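Sharing a chain and its predicted structure for anyone who wants a worked example. Both blocks are below, sequence first, tokens second.
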Amino acid sequence: MSARGEALEEAPGHAAGRALEGAGIGVDEAAVIARVRAGEAEAYAELVRAFTGVALRAAAALGAGADAEDVVQQSFFKAYRALGRFRDGSAFKPWLLSIVANETRNTVRSAARHRSAAGREAALTEAEPLIPASADPAVAAVERERRAALLAALDHLGEDHRRVVTYRYLLELDEAETAEALGWPRGTVKSRLNRALRKLERLLPDQRLPEGGEGR
């Protein structure tokens, strides 16, 4: 098997099992991408390890459900095939997440089903737990309840509003990264986020929500 074939088999094929391993890995994206473009296909596994966790969380939050691992594997494969079109100087994560979003949307539509809030919560937790195991049990319980309420409320938003809240606050992308991942101007991200948060405030009057205009 060629080096390129080995990299694709090694990297995307085992992405789901390495979500926690890769969650905190720092990687010099530009250097790795340059190596892959130069023919060192096995270097792509470094990007897979670094970004599998957030890719799984994105797929789960956007409704991929039990298909999240397949969505992520296919997304990494498509990203690999498209590296020649990747714009130098751009961040890899929002670019990858835009592919994950498209792949998730296609998967959900082809399956003609939508995940419930409870299903998304379970998938998100399985993909990459956001509450540390060392957290105080009472604090962890409150956080789980808060997240469950937020996910349930997201079901009452339109697709664009649900996606912008998911990327900004569940996946913790900044405004510029969210704009790149969704393919929207930053002004559109800000305005849709503001409208989404106003709707969530009405649905969740007891929760303190972030300010929509934050430009982090």
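Comments welcome. The CA atoms of residues 156 and 188 lie 20 Å apart.
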